[in-house]
Design goal:
Layout lengths: L1 H15 L4 E4 L2 E3 L9 E3 L4 E3 L3 E5 L3 E3 L5 E6 L4 E4 L4 E4 L5 E6 L5 E9 L4 E5 L8 E8 L5 E5 L4 E4 L2 E3 L3 E5 L2 E4 L2 E3 L3 E5 L3 E4 L2 E3 L4 E5 L4 E7 L2 E3 L5 E2 L5 E6 L2 E2 L3
Parallel strand pairs: 3-5, 4-7, 5-8, 6-9, 7-10, 8-11, 9-11, 10-12, 11-13, 12-14, 13-15, 13-16, 14-17, 15-18, 16-19, 17-20, 18-21, 19-22, 20-23, 21-24, 22-25, 23-26, 24-27, 25-28
Antiparallel strand pairs: 1-2
Length: 251
């Protein structure tokens, strides 16, 4: 009985405090009582100028008459939690869901980016590094790319990219546990890095595109590709790509 009372008191303290309580490895609960942890993003366009934790509280749509970046990140060491909600755009101007240029250590997670003409999530600078995109759905960015990261040492994990130009494209780093379907190119890692345990299907030009046309160090392992003649393509002149234990053909 005493143990039950202690556990109930502990749970109440967590609920009533202003702290964020981790619910799983890549998800955080933001309390509705007390001072919320982080900064709410409640309207677009929004610019982040300082490191920290930022989160959505509902679905947000960038005005079709403005374009540009829905969320522009002008700082390093930033986490953006979409909290299961979506960033959307319905117009025809140049537009990006989450945009960065030469930033370091930015993470975007847990939601959907949809309808952007340039990219759903984009690092546009070659100096960009160590970004993480986790549990994101990049869908119907028909004029551009789903997830596009220039620079080095990135991680794209447990994401879905569908009905984009290129689904997932990074200069270097790791792409793991992702699904890419109905894009032009499904998953492209220029390397160095790895492409592990992903599934790509029905992507028009190639399900996987591996390398950058020169020597690199890139491992593709445990992937599945089907519904296209070219399942594992490489740019002409690429060396150093190791493709092992992958499946190709019909599921």
């Amino acid at each position: 009985m005493r143990r039950k009372i202690w556990l109930a008191a502990l749970m109440a303290a967590v609920v009533l405090s202003g702290a964020a309580a981790p619910a799983a490895a890549e998800f955080y609960v933001i309390n509705g009582r007390g001072a919320a942890v982080g900064t709410k993003i409640t309207s677009l366009p929004y610019t982040i100028n300082a490191p920290g934790f930022y989160f959505l509280t509902g679905n947000l749509t960038l005005s079709s008459s403005s374009g540009g970046g829905a969320i522009s990140v002008n700082a390093d060491d930033v986490t953006i939690d979409l909290m299961g909600f979506s960033l959307s755009y319905t117009g025809s101007y140049w537009s990006v869901g989450v945009s960065m240029d030469g930033r370091t250590n930015v993470e975007v997670r847990n939601g959907t980016v949809r309808g952007f003409t340039q990219a759903g999530i984009m690092e546009n600078g070659s100096a960009g590094s160590k970004h993480r995109v986790v549990n994101v759905r990049a869908i119907n960015n028909t004029g551009g790319l789903g997830i596009f990261l220039h620079g080095s040492s990135h991680l794209v994990q447990d994401c879905t990219a569908a009905n984009n130009n290129t689904g997932i494209w990074i200069d270097s780093g790791d792409i793991t546990g992702c699904i890419a379907a109905n894009n032009d190119i499904g998953i492209w890692n220029q390397g160095p890095g790895s492409v592990l345990d992903n599934t790509a299907s029905n992507n028009t030009s190639s399900n996987f595109f591996l390398g950058n046309g020169v020597a690199t160090s890139l491992l593709a392992d445990g992937n599945s590709a089907f519904s296209r003649a070219t399942n594992y393509g490489k740019p002409s002149g690429t060396t150093g790509v190791v493709i092992t234990a992958n499946n190709a053909g019909k599921p």
